[in-house]
Design brief:
Blueprint lengths: L3 E6 L6 H10 L3 E6 L10 E4 L19 H11 L4 E4 L1 H8 L6 E3 L7 E9 L15 E8 L3 E3 L2 H9 L3 E5 L10 E5 L5 E4 L17 H9 L5
Parallel strand pairs: 1-2, 1-3, 3-4, 4-11
Antiparallel strand pairs: 5-8, 6-7, 6-9, 9-10, 10-11
Amino acid sequence: MTARVGVVVFPGTNCEHDVVRSVRSVGAEAELVWGGQSQLGAVDAVVIPGGFAHGDYLRPGAIARISPIMAAVAAFAAEGGPVVGICNGFQVLTEAGLLPGALQRNAGLRFLCDTVSVTVCSDSSVLTRGAEPGSQLQLPVNHYEGRYVADVDTVRRLREEDRVVLRYVSNPNGSVDDIAGVTSEGRNVVGLMPHPERACDALLGSTDGAVLLRSLVDSELAG
């Protein structure tokens, strides 16, 4: 059976078509889901893509988290459904309480637009189960508020529970513990700042992101 991935769109989202194209390139079906809807429909996984939901006018993701669709996303996640938030989507998931911590302004207060190296730290999430722990991926970043922060106890718990899924090789934004991506206790909700959907085509410079999206599509939770 072909997995169906719902790609959530808010006013200001700008990476939804990149996600749709990349998800299709790894063998799944993808459809856009408007943030004003109250139902996800018949999907096997959900991706909240990057952009500037609602213009980031309050805090990134702070308005999106109260959009009607987020109640459906939370219910889907509570039932074990795979949910991935990329960049602005990661911000939305932390604001919604589906992931711990928060994303704040980058160290140095500079917008980052670059390709970075990240290390796969865990294969126990829906996004990394097909990746080799210790391997490095080249992925684009494109953010101003991508510095991951959390209190000492939360960081300790993430380490002990093997819930840091990606770490920066050379930390570009000041994130605590070099964290580039984390997962939920159930391993079915993942947030990351780098953009795997922009690294799924050799013509664009890298296919390293494909292993992550393929993991999501091939996950038992998404089948």
